[in-house]
Amino acid sequence: MLSNSTLGQYFPGNSIIHRLDPRFKLLLTFVGIVLVFVAGNFFSLFAVVALVVLAMGLSGIPLRQYLKSLKAIIVLVLFTAVLNLFYGHGEVLWQFWIFQITTGGISNAFFIAIRVISLILFSAVLTYTTSPTQLTDALERVMKPLKVFHIRVHEIAMMMTIALRFVPTLLEETDKIMSAQKARGADMESGGAIQRMKALIPVLIPLFVSSFRRAYDLATAMECRCYRGGEGRTKMKSLHATVLDYRAVAIIVLFAAAVVACNLLLPARLM
Amino acid sequence: MDYLQTADVRFAYEAEEGVTPREVLCGVTLGIRKGEFVALLGHNGSGKSTIAKHFNAMLLPSGGKVYADGMDTMDESLKYEIRRRVGLVLQNPDNQLVASIVEEDVAFGPENLGVPPEEIRERVEEALKAVEMFGHRLDAPYKLSGGQKQRIAIAGILAMKPDCIVLDEPTAMLDPRGREEVLQTITRLNREQGITVVLITHYMDEAVRAGRVVVMDSGRVLLDGTPREVFSHVELLKKHELDVPQATELAHRLKAMGCSLPEGVLDEEECVAALELLLGG
After folding, report:
1. Which in A224, B33, B177, B183 has the greatest CB count within 10 A?
2. Is A10 an 8 Å CB contact of chain B?
3. Which residues of B touch A10 (CB under 8 A)?
4. DSSP characters over B6-32
C-alpha cells in the first residue's frame, strides 16, 4: 500500500536521455527549472513546455509513467489554480460577494498550473532516467568545489545513496509492523487526527529501533568491503561528457534564448 | 602456518563500568588451510560469530594472535589488505547491500579498492556470473528474493577477488529454497574456484556438506574433524545442547535399542542404505 509511489523511481533504459552524463543532466534540469520561472508570458511558457515534451519524448519512457508522477501533486495544482482564479484584474466574468473571477484570473490559473506541471515533469525526466547512484555521483562531482569550505561532499553523497537505497526497505518494514500491530488489536483507522497520530507511535518506535540495528549492520558490511571514505576511491561508471552532452547544452541554450526573446519582444501576459 | 590461523585467541566485549566483562572467546586455537570448506557450529553465545569477525580484523583479540594469509590482524596498516583477501558475508541480506542497483552494489568493493573502471566492469560481470545473477544486474535489490539478495552479497565480496569467504549464518533468514541456492553457490565457489569457505551455521544438515566441521562451545573449540568424526560424538553434542543431523539421530537411537547399524550415518541416503542392509539381512 505504501510502495506504489513513483517518487524517485528509476527506469533502466538506453535512450538519448539515459546516455547523457548525469552531471549535465543535473545542470540542464536546473536550467530547465529556472526557465519555468523566467517565462513571463504564454509564448515563452510555450517554449518551456515544448522543451519538457521534447525531453519526455526522447527519454523513451511511456507517458503513463509521467502521468503517474503528476497524480501525487494534482491536488496541489488544482488548489493553486483555483486560488489564482480569484486574483488578477480584467473583465469581470462572474461575481459573488467579495469573490470575482476575471479574465486575468483565468489566465493566471492556467499559467500557474502549467508552471507547476512543467516543474514536476522536468524533475521526473531526471529521476526516471538517472539511477540514484548516478545522481548522487553527479551531485558529488558538481559540489566538489565546496570542499574548499570543508564541506564533506563525498560523505553527503554517500548518505544520500544509502537513504535512497533504504526507502523501499523501510516502507516494507513499516507495512509489516503495522500489520503486526493490527493483528494485536491496534486501531489505526478510526478516531480524530490526534488519536490517529498516537496510534502511529507503536509503529514508529519499532521502526526506529530496527533502523539503528540496520545501520550497525550496514556499517559492518561496508567496512568488510574496505570502505574508507572518498580518498582513493574509483567509480565503475566514470563520468565523462560526450558529443551528446554538448548537443544537449546547445539545445537548452537555444530554448533559453527563445524564452528570453519571447519575454522581451512579445506583449506581457494577458491580464 | 595455515591460511587462517588463530593462536590462543581471547576476547571480551566491552562491558559497563563496574561489571567484569565476560570472555566470549577463551583461548581459541584453530587453523584453516587454503581451499578448505569448514563449517563452524555452535549454539547462540558460543563465540562462533565473534571468531568470524576476528578473521578479517573487524574485531581484534584482547589476547593471543590472529593471522590471515600470514598477516597479523593487529597490524593497522594491513587491515584493508586482510579484508580484501578474507571477505565476510553477514546474516541479513537486506542490511549489507549499499546501492539501489545490483551491479552498482557489486562494484562497491572494487571501487573502494581503487580498481580502474574498466576492470571493475569485468570483475562485476564475472562475480555476477559466478553466483548466477547476471540476468538481474540492472534490478533493484528490494525486488529480489532473500536467496537472490544473499547471492548478490556474495558477488559483492567476490568482486574484490578474495582468497577466502567467511559467511556468518548466511541462510538463517532465508526460506528452504533460498538456503539451497546459497549453499549450492558457496559449494561451487569452493570446488571450482578453490576459494576457502568458512560457513558459520546452526543447521546441522548444512554442516554435513563441508569437508570439515568445527564445533564451538562457550568460547572454546569442542570438536574438530570430518563431519563423520564429529557427528559420531552424539552424546557429547547432546550434552552441550547441540543437535546432530536427523539421519544421524535416527541411526544413533536405533543402535541404542540394539540394532546393528554402522557408525557415523550422515544423511538420508546413507541411512536408507544402512536400514535396507539391516532389514534385508
Report:
1. A224
2. yes
3. 100-101, 140
4. EEEEEEE----TTSPPPEEEEEEEEEE
> In this predicted structure, what is the pLDDT of residue B237?
86
Say yes or no: B233 contacts chain A, CB-CB below 8 A. Answer: no
- Is B279 part of a structural domain of the chain? no
Amino acid A269: pLDDT: 58
Residue A2, pLDDT score: 45
What pLDDT score does A1 carry?
39
In a domain, B251, yes or no: no
A162 neighbourhood in chain B, CB within 8 Å: 98
Candidates A128, A236, A240: best to mutate against B (most CBs of B within 10 A) is: A236
DSSP B70: T
- CA B44 and chain centroid, separation: 15
Rounded Cα gap, residues B127 and B154, in angstroms: 8
Q: Chain A contact for B173, CB < 8 A? A: no
* CB–CB contact B100 A238 (8 Å): no
Higher pLDDT, A220 or B19: A220
Q: pLDDT by residue (tens digit) across B25-64?
A: 999 999 999 999 999 998 888 889 999 999 999 999 998 9
Residue B126 has pLDDT above 80, yes or no: yes
Output the pLDDT for position A87.
76
Distances (CA, A) of A224 to A146, B82, B85, B196: 30, 10, 10, 17
Q: What grid cell was written down for A245? A: 552532452
Does the beta-carbon distance from A236 to B56 stay under 8 Å?
no
Interface of B with A in 140-169 (CB under 8 A): 140-142, 153, 156-157, 160
Cβ neighbours of residue B161 closer than 8 Å, sequence gap 6 or more: B84, B123
Q: Which residue of B58, B97, B112 is in closest CB contact with A227? A: B112
Q: Helix, strand or coil for residue A15?
A: coil
B55 near B4, Cβ under 8 Å?
yes
In a domain, B271, yes or no: no
For A73-109, the pLDDT digits (tens) are 888 888 888 888 877 777 777 777 777 777 788 888 8
Number of alpha helices (DSSP H) and beta strands (DSSP E) in chain B: 11, 10
pLDDT given for residue A268 in this prediction = 65
- Residue B234 phi/psi, 5-degree rounding, is -60, -45
- What is the tens place of the pLDDT at every residue in A126-159? 988 888 778 888 888 888 888 888 888 888 888 8
**Residue B51: inside a domain:** yes
Number of domains within chain B: 1
pLDDT at A271 over 70: no
Is residue B134 scored above 90 in pLDDT?
yes
Residue B184, domain CATH:
3.40.50.300
Residue of B nearest to A8 (CA): B100
**In angstroms, rounded to a whole number, what is the distance separating the alpha carbons of residues B24 and A175?**
37
Residues of chain B with pLDDT > 90, as a percent, come to: 60
Helix, strand, coil percentages for chain A (3-state, nearest 5): 70, 5, 25
